Amino acid sequence: MLDKLTLRKKYKELRQSLSDEAIDEMSLQIANQALKLPIWDKTNYHIFLTITGKQEINTEYLLHILQGKDKSIIIPKAEFSSSEMKNILLQENTVLKTSEYGIPEPVSGIEVPAEIIDVVFVPLLAYDKKGNRVGYGKGFYDRFLKKCKSTAVFIGLSFFDAESEIPYENTDIPLHYCVTPTNIIDFLN
């Protein structure tokens, strides 16, 4: 089993090897796969905005689906001073600005409590067959997911297949699903 540091390095390198065209194509495939998830009767959806410099999944396609289905869309704003995340309602007049960490974030807006969020699309670098994930290592999402209601659904998005096993800590919150360009992995069954 690889340690988290090695996994982060491995998946950052794998991502860097992808062309912009491949990222775009696979991001569209992930959005199309996501349509098959049993989540579309919900109301409040939390989705991360793409950090292009890190070759992340382009979440614009999922955003379009959510907007087309007239869902409430909530986006994160990282507070690095407290290592907490604020959840801001995305509205037509929401102004986005790229933070010093390269993260597109809302400048201001209506803060939404984690307890009302139904579905969270979770960024990750790696994940395993049990739904454990490895992120960038700051713990923002684990702290945020812990505050969500027990019925909230956590969905990882990945270009790659699962590792057989990754290190798990008590503070880690597992995923319910992970969506790849070709598959939906259901960790509930």
Automatic annotation (TrEMBL):
UniProt-listed InterPro entries: FTHF_cligase, FTHF_cligase-like_sf, NagB/RpiA_transferase-like
UniProt entry tagged with the keyword Nucleotidyltransferase: no
Record: residues binding ATP: 4-8, 133-141
Domain of life: Bacteria
E.C. no: 6.3.3.2
Classification via Pfam families: 5-FTHF_cyc-lig (PF01812)
GO terms classed as biological process: folic acid-containing compound biosynthetic process; tetrahydrofolate interconversion
EC top class, as a word: ligase
Keywords: ATP-binding, Ligase, Magnesium, Metal-binding, Nucleotide-binding
Reaction(s) catalysed (UniProt annotation): (6S)-5-formyl-5,6,7,8-tetrahydrofolate + ATP = (6R)-5,10-methenyltetrahydrofolate + ADP + phosphate
Protein name (database record): 5-formyltetrahydrofolate cyclo-ligase
Organism, as annotated: Aequorivita xiaoshiensis
